[in-house]
Structure formats: structure tokens, C-alpha cells
Amino acid sequence: MNEHAETLEYLKKTGIDLAVQFGPRLLVAIGIIIVGVVVGRWVGQFLDKTLQKLNLEPPVRLLLLRIAKLMVIGLFVIMALQNLGVQLLPLIAGIGVAGAGIALAMQGILGNMLAGLTIIFTKPFRIGEYISIAGVEGDVENINLFTTILSHPDKSNVVVPNRKIVGEILHNYGRIRQLNLVVGVSYDTDLNVALSTVNEVLQNNARVKKDLSAVIAVSVLADSSINIAVKPWTSVADFGPAGGEINKALVEAFRAKNITIPFPQREIRMLGGSK
Fold for domain 2-86? Predict the structure, then answer.
């Protein structure tokens, strides 16, 4: 019973001594960290306003803000540890060893992060552009450190790991796309009239960009028709609906001018008589 009481008394005395010795330091260290968080937020807000004036890409701006906040908070954490009397060199060495092990275990994540940094700084594409990569395509909605998010034409989102993008063949359409339409006319059609009619249809369509010349030309002399290539330019958003509108307008315009759009046909001749 006396031994138990002595143990409790020793623990109590030790706790009081530690509280007296390290309590004020601990409170000061907590205060330093709180100040660091506040200063980090203030630096982040100030830096954000400055970077917005430079018209940087949102992912680049976000990355720089995070790095700045982490550096400020890290500086105050070091000050707090020094106040507590922590030896930083052994701590840094331990963090380095642990970091090496974590890096080996997170190779895929780190690969995505490095690829994300490559994309952010080399800028092979920007937010709002239409790209095709790794077997998928869509509008670039967001570029993060680990993934790139594409908005697909069917209103779904495609999340592409950044390591699947860097080093691959990338088709960047930018903010415009070119339609690839074909309309056939009969061989007895006046081609000049047909071509001018196609041009009128394109000029009357609000989705077609008028500052970029559309390709309108005879492309193929097919079995049953003369095929005319119709390749106007539209914005990425208008690419889908523009094709249907132009096809409908072409049919109506050709009917109005008695231009025949022939259907496939074959002429079969029977040679020789019956025995």
C-alpha cells in the first residue's frame, strides 16, 4: 500500500515538474503555430490577389498558393520546435528516412504528381480546350496535381491520371473544331450551283465561324453520286448541334433548287439467252 502511494506521489511530482519546466514552452509553441496558420492565410490571400493580376492558369495559381502557405506554416513549426528544445538535425534525418519509404510505397501517386507539375508548367493544353488523349476526349474542365478532368460530350466526366497524359500523343483541338460532312449529288447536277448552295447554307448558320474559311469541294466521284466535302469550323460547344442543323438545311436547300441527292443504285445486265 505504501509502495503504491509512493508511486502515485512520484508520478504526481514528476508531472508537476514537467508542467513547470515545459508547460510555458508548450503554450508558447502552440501560440507560435496558431500565429503561423494566421500568417499563412494572410500571405495566401495577398499572394492570390497578386497572382490574379498576372492571369496565371488556375492550377498554377493554386499550386503556388499551397506552396507559399506550407512554407510559412513550416517556418513557424520549426520556430515552435526550437522553442521546445527539440534537436532538429536528428528529426530531419528521421523524416528523410521515413520519406524515402513513403516515396517507394507511393510511386503511382508521386508519378501522377510529377506529371501534373509537368502539365501545369509546360501547358500542352489549357482549361476550356478540347483534347483527345489516351483513348478518351472531351473539354478540359480542371487540371489538378494528380488528375485531369475532361467533360465528355455525353455530359459525363472523364478522370484521367496525369501519368497517362505525359509522354503520350495528344491531339489538342483548342477551342474550335472542324466538322467533316459529306453530301452527294447526282452526276447531272450543275456543280457550281451545288457548291454555291452549300456555301449559302453555311453562311446562314449562326454556329458556323465566318472568320475561318470552310472547305467546300468535290471529294469523291462515287458509284451513284458526286460527293461534296463540307468542312466548316465551329466552337467546341457548337460542334455537336451544328452538324445536324447543316445537314437538315442542305436537304431543304437542295430540294428548293431541284438538286437531286441520289440513293445508292446498281444497274444489272443479263448477258446471253436462255438455253
Answer: Helix Hairpins (1.10.287)
